[in-house]
Amino acid sequence: MKLVVVSAGLSVPSSTRLLGDRLAAAAVGQAVDSVEVEVVELRDLAVEIAHHFTNGFPGRQLAAAIDAVTSADGLIVVTPVFSASYSGLFKSFFDVIEKDALAGLPVLIAATGGTARHSLVLEHALRPLFAHLRAVVVPTGVYAASEDWGAEGLDGRIGRAAGELAGLMQGLSGVRAVADDLAVVPFAEQLTALNSPSGV
């Protein structure tokens, strides 16, 4: 199985990347099957992401990153908090991925920030984004504020979330193809069918 970590950290070293690495290690440790981990650093793709918006084509590195994410068996996404939400770079990367490409994919959401006051970013920003993309978001998200590093509780949250992701990866492997076959009928089309004599 392949697990991909998407890190939107900008600094080197990055607490965002560190959290992603710890989550990946915990997921690998709890998985029954062998897991290959690949890390996508969005910092290195910023220029190609911007060019994609203007010319409609991904560069070589961006295309490889998109392929890694869309072919993964599980995904860990980690973003720093900017203006009480995910970073623009993080959102831009997922904006250039084809619609429905993440349908049925198990995703663990995580974020880092300078204060615990931003911890709800997981629920008001990240979870709705990946629900919209029809991914399967694990119940436990992980937020790490500056004071959480080395404090009690972070390891427990990492372990619980990683265990949920590992379980979904093993339980949902092979199910994504079924999810892709589900056709969504537009609401207007459904109303038209109800109003037509043949739809009665």
Automatic annotation (TrEMBL):
<dbReference type="InterPro" id="IPR029039">
    <property type="entry name" value="Flavoprotein-like_sf"/>
</dbReference>
<dbReference type="InterPro" id="IPR023932">
    <property type="entry name" value="CE1759_FMN_reduct"/>
</dbReference>
<dbReference type="GO" id="GO:0016491">
    <property type="term" value="F:oxidoreductase activity"/>
</dbReference>
<dbReference type="Pfam" id="PF03358">
    <property type="entry name" value="FMN_red"/>
</dbReference>
<keyword id="KW-0288">FMN</keyword>
<keyword id="KW-0560">Oxidoreductase</keyword>
<protein>
    <submittedName>
        <fullName>CE1759 family FMN reductase</fullName>
        <ecNumber>1.-.-.-</ecNumber>
    </submittedName>
</protein>
<feature type="domain" description="NADPH-dependent FMN reductase-like">
    <location>
        <begin position="1"/>
        <end position="149"/>
    </location>
</feature>
<dbReference type="InterPro" id="IPR005025">
    <property type="entry name" value="FMN_Rdtase-like_dom"/>
</dbReference>
<keyword id="KW-0285">Flavoprotein</keyword>
<dbReference type="InterPro" id="IPR051814">
    <property type="entry name" value="NAD(P)H-dep_FMN_reductase"/>
</dbReference>
